[in-house]
Design a protein that fits this description.
The structure holds two protein chains of two kinds. By secondary structure, chain A is an alpha/beta fold. Chain A is about 40% helix and about 20% strand. Chain A folds into two domains: about 140 residues, D-Maltodextrin-Binding Protein, domain 2 (3-Layer(aba) Sandwich); about 100 residues, D-Maltodextrin-Binding Protein, domain 2 (3-Layer(aba) Sandwich), CATH 3.40.190. The longest helix of chain B has about 35 residues. The chains are: A alpha/beta, B mainly alpha. Chains A and B meet through helix 3, strand 7 and helix 7 of A and helix 3 and helix 10 of B.
Chain lengths: ~250, ~230
């Protein structure tokens, strides 16, 4: 073989090699978990050499897509129910699901340096209050429960506006269109302190826990990168990153 | 029928029809002079206005909706204006949806009417003028009948496009029953809540309704054209 062609092959091999060493895992992630997953994925790649492709969206949409053969290996849901259903229906590996994060709810206002107490919601002229959709979004279900516990369900009903997900709920408050909102602690905090606006961390006993489950999907069952990712998500390193982003872990 | 559609579904249908009728009528009233001007003006910035009218075709609805949310919010230019004149904030209200839909559906109404006016050309108006008709007379008795297919297309597209609107409403609506929860949002919520049966009924109903409306309008138009 001629020398030029040989060096060409060598160059090609060098190009392909890094791709061939590590596998790849495609992960469907509930949109409230965007920030932590973007920190977890590079840490995982550094340790294992596997690459991660991240798709973010709403849990309900992912559920419908996975049932119809969407090409995901691992599903990080915003709730416990839908991973369980996927396992029952045979779209996920039975018994593979576990709680990767527990969300915290915060009553939040865009202006800084306010001392927020839930009593502020009692004033009739207090403006709109944004919550995520209580039927479809786990943070909305939690917000509705907290409002009920505060005895404000009837008083707040005419002032409630619903975000399609917790991201949009945050947006309603951040743009000043709602005075208050029940948003995710992970959206407004870093390392356990508030980094934007003012907030009142809703005590965890005021609503059912926002337990977010992950599951290994049938499509990823034989993918070593997918199995490694699930294992990494349970590791202390990953759990520490998740806690830094405002979630509890089990 | 009530067994298939929940009361919330029926509320959403009424709200959607109310929104689509309001928006279509307002757009015909506002869009006709604009279309006339676009068809006949020699102004240098006519091209810029034409481009502005077409912009909602290009912008993703959620992007348009986000800008509207910011603009109509208490700190936005539109929000300050509405607060000053005592209208309050527009997001999460029916009036806010009407304004969002006016912008979103504008090209679908203005462009067919504009093209119909251009197709008529100056000749019929000149003839009417020589016969002694005042411009307003000529517009109503000559131009409007000639431009009827353009108006029909504009009405159908404006109405249909508002019924099917989703992204803008999602961004500025806040999902409030009888105020901003339109059919498209209700279907989306059914799908998200895994209530696929309800979603199918509502989506199927919307599809059938839209088809019947379009069919009726076109049949009517064909019959009148033959006369």
């Amino acid at each position: 073989m001629n020398k030029a062609i040989r060096s060409l092959y060598a160059a090609l091999l060098l190009l392909i090699a890094p791709m061939a060493i590590g596998g790849e895992v495609t992960v469907a992630v509930a949109s409230n978990f965007i920030k932590p997953i973007e920190a977890v994925a590079p840490a995982f790649t550094k340790v294992t050499g596997h690459r991660v492709r991240i798709s973010t969206g709403s849990t309900g949409k992912f559920y419908a897509q996975i049932q119809r053969g969407a090409p995901f290996d691992v599903f990080l849901s915003a709730d416990e129910a839908r991973p369980a259903r996927l396992e029952d229906e045979g779209f996920a590996v039975s018994g593979s699901r576990f709680i990767y994060a527990i969300g915290r709810l915060v009553l939040w206002q865009a202006e800084t340096h306010r001392d927020i107490q839930p009593d502020a919601l009692r004033f009739a002229d207090g403006g709109r209050v944004a919550v995520a959709n209580p039927v479809t979004a786990p943070y909305g279900t939690a917000a509705a429960a907290a409002i009920e516990k505060l005895g404000l369900t009837a008083a707040l009903a005419p002032r409630l506006v619903q975000g399609e997900n917790i991201g949009q709920t945050f947006q309603f408050v951040a743009t000043g269109n709602a005075a208050y909102g029940f948003v995710a602690w992970s959206q407004v905090s870093q390392n356990g302190t508030l980094i934007r606006g003012s907030g009142w961390l809703v005590p965890a006993n005021m609503h059912p826990p926002i337990r977010q489950a992950a599951t290994l999907l049938t499509r990823g069952a034989d993918n070593p990168a997918a199995r490694a990712f699930v294992a990494f998500l349970k590791s202390d390193a990953a759990r520490q990153i998740i806690r830094q982003h405002g979630y509890d872990t089990e | 029928m009530n067994a298939l559609l929940s009361p919330a579904d029926i509320d959403a249908i009424w709200l959607t029809l109310k929104l689509a009728f309001t928006v279509t009528i307002l757009l015909l009233l506002l869009g006709t002079p604009l279309a006339w001007w676009l068809a006949h003006s020699r102004a240098r910035w006519r091209g810029a206005i034409n481009a502005l009218v077409a912009l909602p075709l290009i912008l993703p609805p959620t992007v348009l909706g986000f800008y509207l949310l910011v603009a109509m919010g208490p700190n936005g230019p539109l929000g300050r204006l509405t607060a000053e004149v005592g209208l309050g904030a527009l997001p999460f209200t029916f009036a806010g949806l009407v304004i969002g839909s006016l912008i979103y559906s504008l090209p679908f109404v203005v462009q067919p009417i504009r093209d119909a006016f251009i197709a008529i050309g100056p000749r019929p108006l000149e003839v009417a003028a020589t016969l002694g008709a005042r411009p307003i007379d000529a517009f109503f008795s000559v131009v409007l009948p000639l431009a009827r297919p353009g108006f029909l297309t504009a009405t159908v597209l404006g109405f249909a496009h508002t019924v099917g609107e989703f992204g803008v409403v999602l961004m500025i609506g806040g999902n409030i029953p009888n105020e901003t929860r339109v059919v498209a949002i209700q279907i989306y919520d059914h799908v998200e809540a895994l209530e696929y049966t309800q979603a199918h009924w509502l989506a199927g109903g919307l599809l059938a309704f839209s088809f019947i409306v379009l069919l009726a309008l076109h049949t009517l138009n064909d019959r009148q054209a033959k006369r």
